[in-house]
Amino acid sequence: MSKQGLETRQVQTQKLSPLQIQTIKLIELPIQELEQRVKEELNDNPVLDDTPSSSESDDQPKDLSISEMEEKEQGGSDESYDYSDDDIPAYNLHVNNYGKDERPEYNTFSVRQSFTQALMEQLGFRHLDDHQRTIAQFIIGSLDDDGYLRRDIDSLVDDLAFRAGVEATPAEVLDMLGVIQQFDPSGVGARDLRECLLIQLGDRKQTVPVMNAERILTDYFDEFKNRHFQKIMSRMRITEDDMKDVLREIQKLNPSPGGQIDDSYNDQAQQIVPDFRLDYEGGELILSMPRFSIPELRVNRRYADILENSKYTSERSQKEAATFVKQKLDSAKWFIEALKQRQNTLESTMRAILEYQHDFFIDGDETNLRPMVLKDIAEMTGFDISTISRVVNSKYIETHFGIFPLKYFFSEGLENQDGEEVSTREIKKVLRECVEGEDKHNPLTDDELVDELNRHGYKVARRTIAKYRAQLDIPKARLRREL
User: Fold this and answer.
1) What is residue 413's DSSP assignment?
2) CA gap 347, 431 in Å, rounded
3) What's the mean pLDDT in 393-400?
4) Buried-most residue among 67, 162, 163, 282 (CB within 10 A)?
């Protein structure tokens, strides 16, 4: 494809052509949105027809492909009406790289139901008056991604008045919050971690360990948070075995109930269709893009006739009709060429990623992921960084070891003791393995983790360990200590 056409620096010196604009827009679309975009173009542009030519009978006038249409435009007359476009090459309107099946079987995985939607559905089953329902809906809309209500009741009362025009008392808001805290997932609507865990314990069968856990979280939460277990056992007069039972119960709880439901899509549960498929056969990596079939788009014969006949008439109505057809024909040309360029750009980018991360794609071992940034792939393909960013965004690949977003393969790097650059993801994996293999009665401090990673060949500073540990949701050493 014309790589120059997609470079953002060109915007500063020349106006983007309709083809360039169309191509940029299509590159950004994941495959399911592309399918919808093709349907919209077919509906909006009467010049386009997706009826397969093989389905047409011999006695019917056949539609023309755009390449055939161009031949008619160029060979019909010496009149001054030029309907060709020098910027658009000749066309084969079927994008051959895609599968031939009109509706191939998609391999999909689910994006889970919206968090907000799930709560609203549960609210619909409650017998509430309009006033109560409005308050409850406002509370649900105020929850954060983890499912917590991190705002005080008085501020909610004020916001209800100013933003929703609803006069409510703190008691009414608390009542509706209590209703929401009965919803699934258990723990939703809590105002802090302690309340979240207590809500979940309240939903469990009230065994001795559960009741002990409730008492500890109610009366000794600070001691529990700081893992001062001996102090708790002494004050509650329980044994070490009792304490272990309590810990087992609490470890079953979810400190982030909102995380059980993905809120990436706010309208409905969706399916993600990978744009690429990677197979590993006979020691070779085989890349394909089989998840979508673009129909063979053709120009409807009656519009071709209008365009052809207009060259031999002086009637104003015919000329106006021809102008309309010319505009739609140009639009069809740009759209199909943009589809082809999208295909080529995505494939070239993915092949560059495969080449750069070849060892990883053999078996999916994270330690084989090389540090890679957008600039690396831009240099390999000749595309602009902004183009690579558009390709990577919202695109997925299905491999023989799982489905991954293309963003997964990009990460910065650090040097190991041999001076080689290694991926930060590789270092994080080793860090996690060190923590998982530590003595939980005497967990490793950050300084000791620095030494451990040095022994594995990675030069990492203490502040880097703390940063990566936080990113991996690994608590500090004293909070990892077990009995």
Assistant:
1) E
2) 34
3) 86
4) 67
**HEC string for 182-235:** CCCCCCCCCCCHHHHHHHHHHCCCCCHHHHHHHHHHHHCHHHHHCCCHHHHHHH
Instruction: Please give the Cα distance from 334 to 351 (Å, whole number).
Output: 25
CB 297 within 8 A of CB 50: yes
pLDDT at 380: 94
Tokens of 118: 């799930």
Domains of the chain: 115-260 (no CATH), 413-480 (1.10.10.60)
For 375-405, the DSSP string reads HHHHHHH---HHHHHHHHTT-EEEETTEEEE
Count other C-beta atoms under 10 Å from residue 362's C-beta.
14
Which tens digit of pLDDT belongs to each residue from 252-281?
A: 888 888 764 443 333 333 456 788 999 988
What burial class does residue 400 get, using C-beta atoms within 10 Å of its C-beta: 0-12 exposed, 13-18 middle, 19+ buried? middle
What is the C-alpha to C-alpha distance for residues 53 and 207, in angstroms, rounded to an integer?
A: 72
Q: Are 194 and 221 in contact (CB under 8 A)?
A: yes
Please, which residues have CB within 8 angstroms of residue 90's CB and are 6 or more apart in sequence? 67, 70
Ranking 77-81, 98-102, 118-122, 382-386 by mean pLDDT, the lowest is 77-81
Q: Of the candidates 100, 106, 99, 110, which has an alpha carbon nearest to the alpha carbon of residue 32? A: 106
Q: Which of 218, 202, 212, 181 is nearest to 253 (CA)?
A: 202
- The structure tokens listed for 374 are 């957008």
Model confidence band, residue 318 (pLDDT cutoffs 50, 70, 90): low
